[in-house]
Fold:
Amino acid sequence: MLAGGIAHDFNNLLTGIMGNASMGLAELPDDAPIRTYLREIVSASQRAADLTRQMLAYAGKGQFVVERIDLAQLVREIDPLIRTSIPKTVAIQLDLAPDLPAIEADRGQIQQVVMNLIINGAEAIGEGSPGSVSIRTEARDLDAEAVQREFPHDPITPGPYVAIEVRDTGSGMDEATKIRIFDPFFTTKFQGRGLGLAAVAGIMRTQRGAIRVDSSPGRGTSFQFVFPAVAAKPADRGSTTPIMETPLGGTVLFIDDEESLRRLGKVALERSGWRALLAENGGEGVRIFQEHRDEITVVIMDLTMPVMGGEEALDRIKKINPSVPVIVATGYGESEAKRLFAGKDMAGFLEKPYTVNRLMGAIAEVIGRP
Structure:
């Protein structure tokens, strides 16, 4: 419940960050130097959204999104975030093979695996002590002998794999510590919850991967992970620079209890040629819809609101005009929204956080215009 609630509220905040940054990109000329910073904001928001999606999946209110991933590119994307999370005395060294085969996994999960291992390695070096953490990726073709020799306790089969190794120059571990590192709640830190490597082991099981650990006192630690390779190329995440849709025109009823999102929705809609009617809860939304029923082209409505929630508001709006398309915007993830609205006449879902371009694209999709 706590994870789901935090993820929902954080997705609302991310929508404001991502939406306003994408609006700034749309307003600025192509040669404006500040565009670089706004693109970084949108990109960081997308990475944060990956992590909140994972929280929702753990809470049973979302789903893991499996996609084709370039492991080396993923490490490059989170490298700036990693460097701000570890002591300045610890150097990060990257040795990332080009043209790796893709792996099929949830991006947020793999981010957690990589960041967890790097931060653990940096902490093993010790506060104020110089050292390094190196990250290496490569393609491997494991035969039966290599599987048995390197991963005897993991149920993997021979074949092509993508490997990532995280090696630190820290204090290392003795055998007694090494056999317990994947146990829940086991930790060698004064402060910590002891769930990091247990979560990593669980993620690797779901991804059909394997783990190899090499460590000894005073000689540092090496974690090597292998993931099944797929023949297809990694998915293109697309440009982080949103492009505004062609103005469509009409009236949108935008219902959301977050004032910042109502402001964003109004500016984005009016900039694209739409008239925006705003409501802060389902009850007010139904009242406004009743007054303007003949003018409203589409309704965009938050799922969770005070006074009257999205489910009840949808039923009342559909009784007034069964043909109006309604898009449900949700911070809980599309799968949870589909469960709650099963059997109801929904035109579409808009998963938070979203860019202004995604907002306009959702409208274009449900009214059937290019």
Remarks:
- The domain at 71-230 is CATH 3.30.565.10 (Heat Shock Protein 90).
- The first helix runs from residue 2 to 27.
